[in-house]
Design brief:
Length: 286
């Protein structure tokens, strides 16, 4: 069977499209000092950009384009007037990349150094953050792991991703099932299951979106994973406290969410519109 010119042209076009799409996928998998920032979100790590990253309009890729770029083998240096960023790749395989991130203030004694690992996701054909360990300063030495995926909501301060349960650190939500007991709140004389209310608020907000979690390497005394989880750039812990469906757990948060709690309390949002007891008080009684 012979192909006419029209069909032959169509077959060649399809083959060329397939080739270029495949070629692009292969090239995008290769990590180099120049494309490193294209393959992970620096706003998800510990860096001096933390304050900028809180602005939802901040684009870190555009930010780094404004710096002077110096490349030396596996090391790239982004130079700004008052700041320097260094990225040095120390391990580069087809499935894992390890690099050192160093950011340094030129006119102040500020220096941080982290070791970051990316792992390749064969299903989604992209690189994901796997871990982030602070190397310097010693006083801030910590290691975090990262989880990304669809989340199952357990209650107002706990979710599960890829069979890993994550307890939101620094906040406390009403109990939906503590030793077989359910925490209730009062609206006038009506009992409300505020534990379920908190759970449903979080579930309705997350829906089926991908959630990104930054999990501390150290588990708590109950051997639970502790971390902070985000939908895009919004902290779910902040969301829950600010809307009145969880509380700043100052014993562990060091007041990180106290202003969000003050906002919810002032505006009588969520559980602040009811008569309630704090979750830690409910647990003591039960």
């Amino acid at each position: 069977m012979y192909l006419n010119k029209k069909n032959l042209f169509l077959v060649i076009s399809i083959l060329l499209i397939f080739f270029f799409l495949t070629y692009k996928d292969v090239k995008s998998k290769e990590i180099t000092p120049l494309n490193l920032l294209d393959n992970f979100n620096i706003c998800q790590t510990n860096s001096s950009l933390g304050q900028y990253c809180k602005d939802k309009n901040f684009n870190y890729l555009e930010y780094f384009k404004k710096g002077k770029i110096h490349i030396d083998n596996n090391r790239v240096h982004y130079e700004f007037d008052t700041w320097d960023y260094y990225f040095e790749i120390i391990k580069n395989t087809k499935n894992e990349v390890k690099f050192i991130l160093e950011d340094n203030a030129k006119e102040a004694s500020y220096l941080t150094k982290s070791e970051i690992i990316l792992r390749y996701n064969k299903e989604n054909l992209n690189w994901n953050l796997y871990s982030d360990e602070t190397l310097y300063p010693e006083s801030e030495k910590r290691k975090y792991f990262y989880l990304t995926g669809k989340a199952t909501v357990i209650d107002g301060d706990t979710i599960k991703i890829n069979d890993q349960k994550i307890r939101f650190s620094g906040i406390d939500a009403p109990e939906s099932n503590y030793r077989g007991k359910e925490q209730t709140c009062l609206i006038e004389d009506s009992k409300i299951s505020c534990g379920k209310l908190s759970t449903e608020f979080l579930r309705d907000y997350i829906k089926k979106d991908d959630i990104f979690c930054k999990v501390d390497e150290k588990k708590d005394q109950y051997k639970r994973n502790l971390g902070e989880c985000f939908l895009k750039r919004l902290s779910l812990s902040k969301l829950m406290v600010r809307n009145g469906y969880a509380f700043d757990y100052e014993k562990y948060s060091k007041g990180k969410f106290k202003y969000d709690q003050a906002y919810a309390q002032k505006n009588k949002l969520g559980i602040w519109s009811m008569k309630f007891e704090f979750p830690w008080e409910f647990r003591k009684k039960n």
